[in-house]
């Protein structure tokens, strides 16, 4: 059996529980073909770079799969039929990653406090130090009312 990473995007209208139900449905299909599903990650609702089928956001889900090719073909066939699935992608890999994926590691990095950088001192020649020229000294021209 081959190793795969499978990711799919589900519509923004459905709930997180419905996404979990989709994952369990496809997990059942893979297991019925004699395959195994390892790590399952739900990345949550994220904004899309561009609209897909009139959706601006989508629920992302990742599955590590150890299954024969027939199981992958059946899962992809069912995803083409399902209206809740916007996109899917399956990639054959040499070995599955250990630990959380890069998407979940990024979330951990964003949660750290912002004050972890050392103080760099006052800035020389920054925007606050620049003279504004004669714009502050001259009077403003009155506007003309256009009707």
What is the gist of this entry?
The chain is an alpha+beta fold and 147 residues long.
Fold blueprint:
Blueprint: E1 2-11, H1 16-32, E2 36-52, E3 55-67, H2 69-81, E4 85-93, H3 102-110
Characterization of the model:
The protein has 147 residues and is α+β, with helices and mostly antiparallel strands. It is built from three helices and four strands; from the N terminus they run E-H-E-E-H-E-H. A hairpin with a 2-residue loop joins strand 2 and strand 3 (55-67). Helix 1 (16-32) runs antiparallel to helix 2 (69-81). It is elongated and about 80 Å long.
**Residue share in β-strands:** 25-35%
| Sheet with the most strands: spatial strand order | 2-3-1-4
Helix and strand element order: EHEEHEH
Decide which structural class fits the backbone.
alpha+beta
User: How many beta-strand segments?
Assistant: 4
Q: What is the CA-CA span between the terminal residues? A: 77 Å
Q: Measured on Cα atoms, how large is the radius of gyration?
A: 26 Å
What kind of sheet is the major sheet?
4 strands, antiparallel
Question: Stretches where pLDDT falls below 50 for ≥5 residues?
Answer: none
Number of helices: 3
Estimate the helix proportion, in percent: 25-40%
- Principal-axes geometry comes out as elongated
Mean pLDDT over the residues: 83
Which terms would index this structure?
147 residues, alpha+beta, four-stranded antiparallel beta sheet, 33% strand, elongated
């Amino acid at each position: 059996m081959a190793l795969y990473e499978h990711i799919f995007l589900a519509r923004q209208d459905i709930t997180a529980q419905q996404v979990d139900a989709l994952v369990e449905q496809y997990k059942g299909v893979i297991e019925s073909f004699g395959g195994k599903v390892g790590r399952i990650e739900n990345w949550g609702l994220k904004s899309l770079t561009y609209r897909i089928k009139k959706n601006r956001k989508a629920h992302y889900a990742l599955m590590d799969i150890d299954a024969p090719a027939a199981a992958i073909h059946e899962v992809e066939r069912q995803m083409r039929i399902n209206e809740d699935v916007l996109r899917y992608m399956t990639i054959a890999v040499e070995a599955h990653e250990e630990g959380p994926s890069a998407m979940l590691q990024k979330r951990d990095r964003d949660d750290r406090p912002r004050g972890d950088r050392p103080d760099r001192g006052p800035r020389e020649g920054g925007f606050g130090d620049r003279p504004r020229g004669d714009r502050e000294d001259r009077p403003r021209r009155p506007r003309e009312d256009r009707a």
